Amino acid sequence: MTNRNETRIALAKEIISRAEKAGAKIAEAVVKDGAEMSVKVRQGETELVEEAAPKGAGLRVIINQRSAVTYTNDTTDGGLDALVDDAIELAKLSQPDEFAEPPDASSLAKTFPELDLCDEEARDFSAEKAIQWALEGEKAALGFDERITNSEGATFGRTIGGTALVTSGGFCGSYDSSYYSLVVNPIAEVEGEKMQVGFYWDAKRFLSDMQGAEDVGKEAARRTLEKLGAQKVPTCEAPVIFDPDTGRALLSALMQCLSGSAIYRRSSYLLESENEVIASDIVNIVDNPLIPRAPGSRPFDGEGLPSKNNTIVENGVLKTFLLDTYSARKLGKKSTANASRGLGSSPSVSPTNFHLLPTDTSPEEIIRGTEKGLYVTSMMGFGFNPVTGDFSRGAEGFWIEEGKKTTPVGEITISLNFKDLWKRIDGVGSDLVTRTAIATPTFRVSEMTIAGS
Amino acid sequence: MYDEQILKRAGRGVDMGVGIRVLRGDATGYAYVEDLTPEAMLRAAKTAGAIANAGGANTSAELVSVHLPRRYELDSLSLLSSGEAKRALLERADRAARAYDSRIERVEASFVEQVREIVIATSDGRFIHDRQPLLRFNVSAIAEDGENRQGGRSGGGGRVNLDFFTLQGQKPEDHGREAARIAISMLHAEEAPAGDFPVVLAPGDSGILLHEAVGHGLEADFNRKGTSNYSGKIGESVASGLVTVIDDPSYAHARGSINTDDEGNDAKASTLIENGKLVGYLHDRLSAKHYKTESFNGRRESFRDAPMPRMTNTMMLGGPHSPEEIIENTKKGIYAKRFSGGQVNITNGDFVFSLTEAYLIEDGKITAPLKGVNLIGNGPEAMGTVDMLGSDVEISNGIWTCGKDGQSVPVGVGCPTIRVGSITVGGTKIGG
């Protein structure tokens, strides 16, 4: 273990020891620190350089089944006293909840998998280098085509930091992770049409895994140009293909409904759906925190349980909800080790690497096999109701005729209730890219309502 | 967090730090630290200053304290009221929601408060201290009848203390009942039609449409860079002649009100659109320098962020019609009452809004509740088709938070009843 991990753990242990002395039998402390840097360039000039060193500590105590959570970024002696005193005081205000207990001590992780989450070189990665990356990305976009007339700029970010969790139940763990990202936002304009902004980005834990800045810039330009001349289409029902970016948004919305917390709070359209068919038989979804270098990987969950690979949907059948200890107890089940926790909050259910698994079908084949339909490249708005599954969002993309992408489409909405949407998936592509924790390949829904002119 | 008739969790947190910004031309160096020792602060200042290394000598004026207006002065902060008093508010809301109808299955209520103490010192000599209280109360209810399940929400707040909950319509019971009412009324909501329709926007909350579809496009950073669909359009007609839009930080105790912006300038009202004509943008220091005007809309989420042009309370002023005659004059359309949120593409002006409470208008009457309604359109186009405007201006109930570039700031929105001639409604029912 590195010195950084030891320092974080020492602080967390100090907080636990103070909380125990103050009368908390159950206490859990989280300590986080990091170094962040972000630069933005626009039209070849540096516009913003930001550097920061955030840090903080969070505490949860449970006294006679009463919970309280406090956090602070004041880690001086007085700051820690206030952190503990406030938690003890607030626990008296909460009311007893028999389900509020940490996981059983015997289930806690004792050893940790090596997941290769931290590029140590990120510590010395300078603002000058970041500016170079951003400049190169923007330049590639601006030089790609004369219709790229302007730019919202390019941003490069680098984060490195760590998290420690120590609990009175005997868990003690800490790990470092790093993250680099580059996003390029070109603007395209031609006389007589709406100006369009587009983007493309990449993000990886290791710099050596990043796509080159030039590739990111060119792809951003290509995607922006594609939007020019977007038209509404007439209101109709048609097949809709989601690219990996928009597919991810649908999978995120589904994830919300698969969270044990949404289930016991009756805020999901998937109540009592375990072992039921919720999607077509080509839909397989896993949550896997153990993929080396992946963005959603973690060696243990927010309650100290060992990370494990969970099958969520198998051939369209829902196998399990995502559970933390609290929601598992409420539902009479076992945690799937899907707890995560921020500094100032109790553990809550969250996914790790949550993937719709790819098939052998190429995305081109899916397009070729669509006689008439919509190919969606971006969505807007927040039109999803997890309680009912109603889904309706603004969309942009292309119209497909005879298996080919034709004119760009915009200012329309696509709608279908999730109960039907996932069952109507009749094509899943091979193109799963894991630059995000929640990820899907291209997929097709056989029919949705498209509202346009 | 009050859930299943118990206060499950109480929490408290402390966040403090200093952010240092150095400007040179259009470039910004920014650094923050959470360690308030002189050494750490000096290190941050040097990091932020690195961007200005090439510049010449800098002068800084002597700091002079600035007197601020008092738009949200309170006898005592809610932070100092007892935890039991706050728990009691949640219990009252929960009881009222459950008592509303036996089909109410679940109720959750939450109370969140913060006090933001800010000190701003600028190299042009301004020294400012402001204390910004903020409180938000929320109730959500779920109704089930064996066949359908629906949720409803109600909430309120602002730069207020617990006295707020004695106001008409703001009692915890009022919010509990309102959340329950929406959940129950949506239980048998019909599928919304798909296609272009006239839309009547209810007063108050509908201001979010204005905020998103127009307000963001008028933030001067986008216009300075030529990336907004409103770029270069000052003096041009961008809305129907009925439309006048202002941004006003001075409403007493409103969620979006501020005494000072986060760059140390006196926060003032400004007119953005006057009788349909674009007359001004919202500025921060950087954009004001470019446009050779004054700035007072530079806002930021916290010491962790550099400021940028942001809205405060964005309002559409009233018009000549009564709300009743607007509805009576609508043969077929949508009545939009409550929004869950919206998003806009600044560059092409396209927007999308999701409604949590909406009704059909048939032959001049509000009829069936609708579910899953989305409105999609284009800011200038939609504003151009505003053909009736009510006299009933309301400010929303202190619930909105605006996100831009990852920074959240509290805002207010407001408007009268508005009829927009045509917006695309994203429903599921075709030909309805």
Description of the molecule:
The complex is a heterodimer of chains A (453) and B (432). Chain A has nine helices and 22 strands. With 453 residues, chain A is an alpha+beta fold. Chain A folds into two domains: 3-225, PmbA/TldD fold, CATH 3.30.2290; 230-453, no CATH class. In chain A, the strands form four sheets. In chain A, strands 1, 2, 3, 4, 5, 6, 7 and 8 form an eight-stranded antiparallel beta sheet that branches. A five-stranded mixed barrel of chain A has the order 9-16-18-19-22. In chain A, α3 (127-142) packs parallel to α4. Chain A is globular, with a radius of gyration of 24 Å. By secondary structure, chain B is of the alpha+beta class. Chain B folds into three domains: 1-58, no CATH class; 69-188, PmbA/TldD superfamily (PmbA/TldD fold); 193-430, no CATH class. Chain B is 18% helix and 39% strand. Chain B contains eight helices and 28 strands. Chain B has helices at 38-49, 83-100, 172-187, 207-215, 220-224, 285-291, 323-328, 379-384, and strands at 2-3, 6-7, 9-14, 18-24, 27-33, 64-65, 104-121, 126-144, 149-158, 190-191, 193-201, 245-247, 270-274, 277-278, 298-299, 308-309, 313-316, 332-344, 350-362, 365-371, 374-378, 386-389, 394-395, 401-404, 407-410, 412-415, 418-426, 429-430. In chain B, strands 1, 2, 6, 7, 8 and 9 form a six-stranded mixed beta sheet that branches. Chain B has a six-stranded mixed beta sheet with strand order 14-13-12-17-26-23. In chain B, β15 (298-299) and β16 form a beta hairpin. The radius of gyration of chain B is 23 Å and the shape is globular. The relative contact order of chain B is 0.15. The model of chain B has no long low-confidence stretch (mean pLDDT 92). Chains A and B meet through β2, β4, α2, β7 and β18 of A and β2, β3, β5, α2 and β7 of B. β4 of chain A pairs parallel with β3 of chain B.
